[in-house]
Design brief:
Organism: Paenimyroides ceti
Shape: globular
Largest sheet: 6 strands, mixed
Protein name: GNAT family N-acetyltransferase
Strand order of the largest sheet: 1-2-3-4-6-5
Low-confidence stretches: 164-173
Radius of gyration: 15 Å
CATH architecture: 3-Layer(aba) Sandwich
Number of helices: 5
Structural class: alpha+beta
Mean pLDDT: 90
Order of helices and strands: HHEEHEHEHEE
Number of strands: 6
Pfam family, one: Acetyltransf_1
CATH topology: Aminopeptidase
Strand content: 25-35%
Length: about 170
């Protein structure tokens, strides 16, 4: 809970950056959402030199976005926000390494992620980080999801754990 103000600062920086690059941006997230994720141990961070350099959230269920695919045992990654002082350091690749290990430890078959819209640059980046691009999906039921999902089409990504080779088990997060 001590990190919540820094998490929101990183979200604000990420949203401001999104406004310069994309048409869809993150809304201001409700504090209760982040508090719940922290309490449930679903909010993660990478720290270097006592500084938070990246945050993200996870869940084991994401039915409104993944629909019938939600039945597959998966770890879903949301809201990766990087401290701008550490951009360009391939932190998503580090998150992928961590998520692959985390999925195995929790008997999950997939690591999944979505982004709002059809963004070729992000699609290319996430596939270079190890995700398979599954295509676009027009969301049907967005009630209760953050505002940027309203009436949205999302890009879906996944990594199959069974086909992914384990690497660097010594990572700590």
């Amino acid at each position: 809970m001590n990190d919540i103000d820094e998490i929101f600062r990183l979200y604000k920086i990420a949203t401001d950056f999104q406004k310069t690059k994309f048409t869809v941006c993150w809304p201001e997230f409700e504090r209760k959402l982040i508090e719940t994720e922290i309490t449930e141990n679903r909010q993660w961070k990478i720290v270097a030199s006592d500084k938070i350099i990246c945050v993200w959230a996870t869940t084991f269920n994401d039915p409104q976005i993944w629909e019938e695919r939600n039945n597959d045992p998966s770890v879903y990654i949301h809201r990766i926000a990087t401290n701008p002082d550490f951009r360009g350091q391939n932190l998503v690749r580090e998150i992928v390494k961590w998520a692959t290990i985390y999925a195995r430890e929790n008997q999950k078959q997939f690591v999944r992620m979505d982004t709002v819209g059809n963004n070729p640059g992000l699609i290319n980046y996430y596939t270079k980080c190890g995700f398979d691009f599954l295509g676009l999906l027009k969301l049907k039921n967005t009630k209760g999801l953050p505002a940027h999902y309203n009436n949205a089409t999302v890009s879906l990504f996944q990594i199959s754990i069974s086909s992914e080779r384990e690497s660097n088990k010594s990572l700590t997060f």
